[in-house]
Amino acid sequence: MFQLQRRAFEARGEGDWDSKDREVPVTSEETLLSDLVCDKCAGCSKLAELHCECERLRGGV
Question: How many domains does the chain have?
């Protein structure tokens, strides 16, 4: 899951990554990242269990 999150941030052009090939990648010191939001719902602000909460509420998961 951590690698998927890293890849999502990288796709958005975010993150200066150290140890990006390890199980748990980490950003360089003082690197700030934005919230990952769902493409379908601007109100969703958390990535949980690879699916956003709004999809669960809609019955998509």
Answer: 1
